[in-house]
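User: Can you fold this complex?
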Amino acid sequence: MTRPDEHRVDPDVDLRVPADRRELAAHPAAVLGTIAAGGALGALARAGVQTAFPHPPAGFGWATFGVNVTGCLLIGALMAVLTARPAGPLVRPFLGVGVLGGFTTFSTYVVDVRQAVAAGAPGTALAYLAATVLLALPAVVAGDAVAGRLLARAGREATR
Amino acid sequence: MTVLLIVLGAAVGAPLRYLTDRAVQARHDSPFPWGTLTVNMAGSLLLGALVAVPASPALTALVGTGFCGALTTWSTLGYETVRLHREGARRYAVANAAVSVVAGLTAASLGYALAHAVTG
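Assistant: Here's the predicted assembly.
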């Protein structure tokens, strides 16, 4: 039933990981406050990108697309680092649940797809829908791979 | 002012995602990430409804950009899908991506239609 951290599926909270199961009861205010602070920072960064690169209803939502793909790259890297080198109990809640969870968004993604269809641009809607899935998932893998390589190199240099 | 409203909405949305995920995951034993799907569908429904009504920029910042944006997530969805695939649960991985996108679009459209019907 219990699984070690390297078999984690959910980066927000995986109840099969013993530390995740215990964290809320151990420090409820610290965990929720940290997630709230991280989420606010992530959301502000996303809003900044969306304001800098607006798009018409029938256009491709480049800002949200970039935010979601970047967030997936970073969650892959973050979780690889945290699995290899366990950090303090609030690092995953702050960076993973808060900052990256608040930075990326699923609601704007699907609402923008719906709006593009409604605005008479089904081709753009489909391209945006597919491009996000086809780039976000490999981005997680790439983030994990790059972080893994950097960790391995750092490990070799430390033992030299 | 807009910045403050986004901060406020996100400061509620992000912890609510964590708490909802915990509550949903505690109620089943399958590897399927129902918790993340729940928050993503709820946020898509709400944002779909919000864009259908003549919302003020303040309400859009608070509820749309802040709350719905932080409640829903692509990073968690992406990570879970890749992890399920790596753990050998390939069908769950494909189902997670497909169900999220199809049900998310349905939720957004449903929210829009409901809000549109109510407000005329």
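Residues 1-119 of chain B form one domain. The mean pLDDT of chain B is 97.
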